[in-house]
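step 4 of 6: structure.
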Amino acid sequence: MEDFLYVGKDVPRTAEINKVTGRAVYIDELKRPGMLYGKILYSRYAHARIKSINTEKAKKLPGVKAVITGYDIPDVRVGFMEDQTVLKRDVVRQYRDEVAAVAATSREIAEEALDLIEVEYEELPAIFDPVEAMKPGAPLIHELDGHGRPVKSNVLPLRWTLNVGDVEKARRESAYVVKDSLTTPWINQCCLGTSGCVAEFDSVNNLTFYSQTNVIFGAKQRISRYFAKIGLKDKKIRVINPIVAGSFGTKLDTDIYEFICIQLALKTRRPVKIQFTREEEFRTLPPRQTTRFEIEQGCDKNGMLTFRKAEAILDNGAYTSWGATTPSVMMMPISSLYRVPNVYFNAVCVYTNNIYSQAMRGYGNPQASFAVEVSMDHLAEEAGIDAAEFRMKNRNRPGEVTPMGLKITTCPLDRCITTVKEKIGWDQKRGKKNGRGVGMASLIHVAGGARVYLSDGTGIRIKVDENGHVDVLSGSTDQGQGSQTVLAQIIAETIGFRPEDINIIFGDTALGLWDAGTHASRHTFIAGNAAIRAGEKVKRQILELAVEYVPKLLKSDFRKQKKKDPDFHEPELDFTLIDNPEKLDIKDRMIFAKKAPENPNFRIDVARVLNRALNVGNGESKTVMAEVFWDPPTQMLNSEMKGNWSCTYAFGTTGAEVEVDTETGEVKILKLVAAHDVGRAMNPTLVKGQIYGAAYIGVGFALTEKLQVVEGRVMNPNLRDYKVLTALDDIPVEAVIVEDPDPMGPYGAKGIGEPGLVPTAPAIANAIYDAIGIRFTDLPITPEKVLAAIRAKKQENQQRDA
Amino acid sequence: MKGYDYYKPDTIEEAMKMMSTLDGAEYIAGGTDVMVLIKKKALSPQNLISLRNISELSYIDTDNGLRIGSGVTHSRISESDFIKRHYSALFDAVSNIGSVQVRNVGTVGGNICNAAPSADTLCPFLVFDAVVLIAGQKGEYQLAIDDFLLGPNRVALAKGEIVKGINLPALGANSGSAYIKHTRRKAMELPIVGIAARIDIDAKGHPNDWKEAFRRIDDISDMLRLLEKERFVCNDARIAMGVVAPRPIRAKKAESALQGKVISEGLLDEIGRIAASESQPRDTLRGEAWYRREMVHVLTKRAVLMALERMIHADSSNNPKTS
Ligand SMILES: Cc1cc2nc3c(=O)[nH]c(=O)nc-3n(C[C@H](O)[C@H](O)[C@H](O)COP(=O)(O)OP(=O)(O)OC[C@H]3O[C@@H](n4cnc5c(N)ncnc54)[C@H](O)[C@@H]3O)c2cc1C
């Protein structure tokens, strides 16, 4: 293995010291002079006609600076499919519909003002079940689409179909076939910090928008399109990230509260902040949608997969955000996890009067992999093959092209499976059905960007000052995953500085070059690649300056020394050792001659060279700066949903050992081994942090988390009743880093932000099956469900025996 | 949330006087229930009278029984080795309330006065036959906890009265107790069902060191067999159930079924079933009624067994074991 100074090392997250000491400025702390506080009034019905809104009393409350409704602002559409307006005028279609908004001098006054707004509704019949909503004749959630054309059905006009080979023929020829139905619930992303933003206009209506978005340039464009529609065309927009306390999908789209905040700032001519309470976070942020899967797959008598067919129904809710594109990612495990020659996938997103949905970490992959991997276990059993062996036989291999057109470069899936087998004690523990069991599941995910926009690029600027300090202006964002540290490590390694010399500035559209956003586990991979390229340029510039100025610096040093000490003899130096940038290198910010690395005369701090190059006094001063915009060589998915949309793909396997309390139905996780292909770990501690965190969320997905939405209404809008796991739920996760450096990755790295979550739930479900012989296909697997199933099985057995 | 004035009297007398003169006043101790209500706008007091400065409310007295001032925090109780060993069910309850932060400010007084159907200390207090000590207009008086609890968030306190403390009678020599809080997670949880049990074993006619033989046994079934063989009878039992009725209640029929009997696996199952039949759980989003009833059955068995084990290991220093 190559010898790196910083890459692959546990460099501490020094940039985070401000977070743990309470100095970091999150949106909560952000205050602008004269700032007002905005609050939003939401609908009281899942579906209703607004008969009247009276804001008079609210306007009179002292401290209230503005009250706006849909009738006070231009009635223009926003959103992914332009299927909603900022404030709703005639009809509300979900409980989270924004009906009015207030800006006041304090949060308390704004809240009080909301209570004074009187809205009269006429309730309309609502529809909450996507299957019902799909039926012909079902009442339509929307009568017109974004272009004003009549809508014929509640099914979104998005086609998510992949068809490769001949599934029907393959089914007929299969020796074993299984069919399963699986469902997953609404999941709230549960970011540590709640959502919020600050909008501030200058006197000529240019906007500075402090937003937690992880797609700053996307946000800018969305606001810009909105501006064009409301008479602010060509006004300048600057989007700045405060410190972000988690996004997990919630900050992909520009949310309605952000447009409302902008409207309030426009109306009051003052900066306005909107910040959610935790209750609002639960009631009004778009969650991961519910999904129903029908999956069928088969294998031949040797256990080789023959086909896979999957159909999914996603509850879109009343409007559309990026959640409606998650089928593009679902397609990945359906078509490309394990080798399967014939594949059919179709997904529909359906409008209902439920809360509208978004994406969450994994972007559809957790739901789809749950279906694929539970079904894989089922098929292995049907075929009489050990479930690990079955996966091993069908595993992906380097160099293959999957039915979806994904080009697999590196693929240590075999090592992931074997590692899990060993560490979980598979051979000793599997198949006992004694209340304890082991199970496993694997994943595939994009790990080298994901071309969902026409550009998947990122821009980076690196400048080095005369003190040898580096400022990096990156167009991307950090949501708390430690990007600062990793990028600093990569740049330090590339230019020969120390990580502590490097300051990274993220999340400002005025400073950074364009970036597609920190999503799809792409940041380290894409920004890292750009950083290496920019770093190489910077290094070259420094070395060129060194060739010019090191001899001059040495000469003047010698002169000075001679003045001080008349006996000083100038050393005989071979200046040809440093007469070309190729002959020089930098380490620990010190320039040295490659051929004479120990020669103390040639060891010079970069800062001295840059200082000298800047302060020349003759009109020829120079400074060091480089920029790179890097767009990876990948493809958009074509109309058949095929294409190599990422430079590389990550694999991984999670194994679970569980114990089921057959009296209470509780499932205890005795061990969770998560072995992940990360290409090369840039910073093992941070990589493990991503795996631990993702695995925890995966356990929640498997066992505890569910947003309870009853007739469109969120019934558990708090952290007491929404069971995200806590630090005390000590799930014994062992994160295993499997390295196989990727040729395209920065120093070999692959993305690892999402993968840890993906195989966790199916691994647990499969382990439960191994423990008690009951296959759970409806998440979360609660004690109630387990106990009810155990009883039903007992009864069945008794009836059979009788 | 509207504004309010905040007072911090030093004595019970002063506090009661303030309550009688200030408009729209409420007592506040740790505030972990009161502040939640204020934020939800379920309560909008004009004045808050804090009890936190009143030193008369913050005693723990372990002479002949146990007396706890109402202002004692859950954390302080959980740090008492005496309570952990002898009033284990109470220790179980307070050490799993909310989170460290909640336990550091939340008080026992607040827990019993707020009287949520899920309040964790109530089942333990019921099995210890606790008596509530109340400072009223006409002086101090006492009320059994069973009479103090009226319904969900309702207690037998007249306007302005202050709970001074809770008195727990001394326990028999061969007594053990446990509280099981059935939850989905390990923190920040209200119980789906809470079960407390206390048992007293009659050791008359047995040698002084009778527990020794039991301590050598690891397996609970073996322990029960020995109990049966040596005819150790349960001469007192209490079982209380939380979240299965408008307020925590005792399972009195199950208690009588234990009385005077030797504990066995069969008997435990029967007692569980009886307790379940005495429960009246409802279907809510936090748990389905059938499941709650089933958990009463299972957890009653387990709580009695835990109480038994603790009784046997009462003198050992890590009793009860903390996870
Ligand atoms: C995040 C969180 C988690 C929680 N978890 C749990 C849990 O797991 N289990 C549980 O049981 N509870 C839980 N609670 C509820 C609460 O913490 C407890 O009920 C606590 O014991 C209340 O005590 P307090 O001192 O904070 O009461 P306060 O909120 O100060 O008062 C509660 C009520 O009692 C009255 N009061 C207080 N002291 C007296 C007195 N001496 N005389 C007369 N009236 C008085 C007050 O006027 C008020 O009506 C939780 C609360 C929160 C916020």
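step 5 of 6: annotate
 - Chain A has three domains: 31-126+195-275, 291-446+636-799, 457-501+514-630.
 - Chain A touches chain B at residues 108, 111-112, 663-665, 704, 708, 710, 715-716, 719-721, 723, 725-730, 782-784, 787 (CB under 8 Å).
step 6 of 6: archive
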